[in-house]
Amino acid sequence: MDNTSKIPSYLSRERLGPWETYLVQIDRVEPYLEKSLLPWVETLTRPKRTLIVDVPIRLDSGEIAHFEGYRVQHNLSRGPGKGGIRYHPDVTLSEVMALSAWMTIKNAVVNVPYGGAKGGIRVNPKNLTLAELERLTRRYASEINIMIGPEKDIPAPDINTNEQIMAWFMDTYSMNQGKTTTGVVTGKPLSLGGSLGRPDATGRGVFITTVEAARHLGIPIAGAKVAVQGFGNVGEAAARLFAEAGAKVVAVQDETGTVFNAAGLDVRRLKRHRHETGSLGGMAEAESIDNQDFWACEVDILIAAALENQITEDNAGRIRARIVTEGANGPTTPAADLILQARNILVIPDVLANAGGVTVSYFEWVQDISAFFWSEDEINQRLDKIMRDAFNAVWASAESKGILLRTAAFVLGCERVLLARKLRGLYP
Ligand code: GLU
Which fold does the domain 33-182 belong to in CATH? Predict the structure, then answer.
């Protein structure tokens, strides 16, 4: 079959940036929105507030280096801004705008009382020493200080940012305030107001939503074959949880290569191997295969937990999974969405599938503000309920309207945001 024949020319082969992808998604959702909300839809196509900052730091060599940083608050109708901070050489304003918009929708889909925000610095953190990374983080935190705060905008980890970076961030904000303010960021170390369950939360949410989808499709998890793209915080946790539930993680891909074992990879051993050697390849019982062949692996479930624009019109026709779960933000292009739909492959969209991270971030923020901390069981149980309820609400709406899960999730999220917007009215 010619998979590209039904793709409208404005999507075809054109490398849409993440913001354009988001705008196409809003276009697709508009016909299904409650009519009284339509006058407010344009709100969603314009970020509320955008800040571009210069982040100069002194390198260990004594030289000065400048990096460009961003913080975008896409929408604050439902509460303070919330969303991670990304350190990556490909970070652009357009990307951060899209990521902040997806946070708006995601936070509304799981109904946490936040707007959407995101930040980032265009930098390859692997080229910096630990001391340089600390200076970069502290200077960036100072530059975006005017926008953030526990009641204004609460950052969190994203690609290449971790607990230590959140600790530096929290400390910088607190030093400027003259008081320790743990609730200004989430994803902190446990000893600094972090939450149990936060490190695995995004991967756990990916697992929970996929299990729900598999149940609807009649696919048993025990023995199901799973391929995972991305072996960072999200991909590794999801792979581990699938393996623990009896699934076979047959293929894993990250920026260092792709490994395969038809009988299932040992995920914990692979994590250790990746950590010790710096790459996926070279472990016994893990055959290295061509990166492009990853997409054609015969699996039940494919988890896309790396970066944006990974599933495109070039590889969507080769995917043999029955379920694609978006652990990453924006991994599927709008053109690829059409191909997967035509091939009857179910896509669990990012704004639902990876919302477990921000859900436990919300728990962390609530715990910080109330200075009362919960057990891991309590956190995992609450996460499980929120993710399953959100999944089933989206599933029911998709079934009754005959639309994709992505469209249904966007309808749910957008309607919550637009209702808040409408009720608040215009000022002045
Ligand atoms: N960066 C994560 C995301 O994309 C988590 C954001 C948060 O916890 O605020 O959802």
Answer: Rossmann fold (3.40.50)
